[in-house]
Design a protein that fits this description.
The chain is an all-beta fold and 209 residues long. The chain has a single domain, classed as 3 Solenoid (UDP N-Acetylglucosamine Acyltransferase, domain 1). Helices cover 0% and strands 36% of the residues. The protein is built from no helices and 26 strands. A ten-stranded mixed beta sheet has the order 1-4-7-10-13-16-19-21-22-23, with no helix packed on it. It has a six-stranded parallel beta sheet with strand order 3-6-9-12-15-18, with no helix packed on it. It has a four-stranded parallel beta sheet with strand order 2-5-8-11, with no helix packed on it. β22 and β23 form a beta hairpin.
């Protein structure tokens, strides 16, 4: 078992759990309690708030901001400069402007989940109270304001589905924004894995064992 590697400039607070084989690079700040799984990479100058759950074999590039109430499942990639959010209508103070609102989670804090195998491109902003589906891909610079289905490719501001992607990352179906055609048997042109698309939902015909 390989011990986690933490750069000497990283700030890891009490209550943070880091799995074996994980690398935490320079000037990363992880607040506790938080769990970072096994064999992950957390790039330089990334901030991870308390209460975040990160699975195994997750790759987080530089300067990513992950706020409270975010869950990242196994095998996810989050590219540089991505920002997560957890409040749709944030205010700094109470309505009378006399009291600074606490940063602790409350009834306005809404969750986000990034499901296994998904990719979020560089410079994205991720809204809250939504999920990014299994093996979905969000194109660089996108603004995600609604859920992204499994295996969908979503791009734009706001992000809209424009295709479907394989486990390997290669698109196997493209379409006009939001108009998902049925495809009863479609093969990935690179690795050959096969999928069916019906009413916008993607199913694997022969997933890897």
């Amino acid at each position: 078992m390989t011990a986690p590697r933490v750069h000497p400039t990283a700030r890891i607070e009490e209550g943070v759990e880091i799995g074996a084989g994980t690398a935490i690079w320079d000037h990363v700040h992880v607040r506790g309690p938080t769990r970072v799984g096994r064999d992950c990479i957390v790039g330089e100058k990334t901030y991870i708030a308390y209460g975040v759950e990160i699975g195994d074999r997750v790759k987080i590039n530089a300067m990513v901001y992950i706020c409270n109430a975010v869950t990242i499942e196994d095998g996810v990639m989050i590219a540089a400069g991505t920002i997560f959010t957890n409040d749709r209508f944030p205010r700094a103070t109470t309505p009378d402007l006399r009291t600074l609102r606490t940063s602790a989670p409350d009834e306005r804090t809404l969750p986000t989940r990034v499901r296994e195998g998904a990719t979020i491109g560089a410079g994205c902003v991720i809204g809250c109270d939504l999920a990014i589906g299994r093996f979905a891909m969000v194109g660089m610079g996108s603004l995600v304001t609604r859920p992204v289905p499994d295996f969908h490719l979503a791009v734009g501001r706001p992000a809209t589905s424009v295709g479907c992607v394989c486990r390997c990352g290669e698109p196997f179906l493209r379409f006009e924004a939001g108009e998902v055609p049925d495809a009863p048997d479609r093969a990935c042109p690179v690795c050959g894995l096969r999928y069916a698309v019906k009413s916008g939902l993607v199913s694997e015909l022969a997933p890897p064992a």
